[in-house]
Amino acid sequence: MNLSDSQTGGSVPAASSFPRRVSAMEAVLTYLRQAIEEGEYAVGEKLPSEAELCRRLEVSRPVLREALRALQTMGLTASRTGKGTFVISSGPVEDPTFGDYTASDLLEVRRHVELPVAGYAAVRRSAEDLDQLTHLLERMERETDTTAWVAMDTLFHLTIAQAARNPVFRKVIEEIRDALARQSAFLNELGDRREQANREHRAIVEALSDGSEPDAVAAMAHHLQRVETTLSTIVRRGSETDDRTASPMKPPMEGQQE
Q1: Which of 102, 116, 129, 230 could lock onto 163 through a cystine, CB 3.0 to 4.6 A?
Q2: Cis amide prior to 214 (ω within 30 degrees)
Q3: By the 8 A CB rule, do 121 and 216 touch?
């Protein structure tokens, strides 16, 4: 079974049971997450080696590693150097962790920091700030590589903080920069957020260009709300697929794309 080829095999549900297309990584993640939450892999138990999982699931090592990273973000597993990946919780997933911070902590801080930052930036930004943001936005809209896009995403928010002309704001964003990047990658891998985020970013830049403090705050608030909604959807997704059945060690494949 090769997930990237979107083949069908084993005891796989009909295509109609899949409301949307998923990537090979997400299919592997869904399978492993359900296996953990349903007790197939108990808390304290070590998952099979990467080589063994790749063999059983017929996926590449990069695809598997992305899924394993997502499991850690969700707080279900932990990687121990030289020993492997161990189950540390059977779920349910409630609050993913990005580096040193949970998603809920990040969102709370971002609402209290980035909303006023957007408002201040609208009235304090310079022509150079607008040029930088516009150029960055254009690059993001053309970018197809997730890693490069994520790097520009965090730079975008840092640039807005710089435009607010208060070094403390930029310092706060710099402090959570790594967590923001991890969250951005997570949302792109599992929430297909890139195109929508680009539109939200463009609305923010347009409000800054107009010099409208209320519009800038509203655009940033909408952006953060969409982040929160996508995170909630990803967290809930595992429970929505509990009634699906697949053959042993074979995640759902119908309707997948790499």
Answers
A1: 129
A2: no
A3: yes
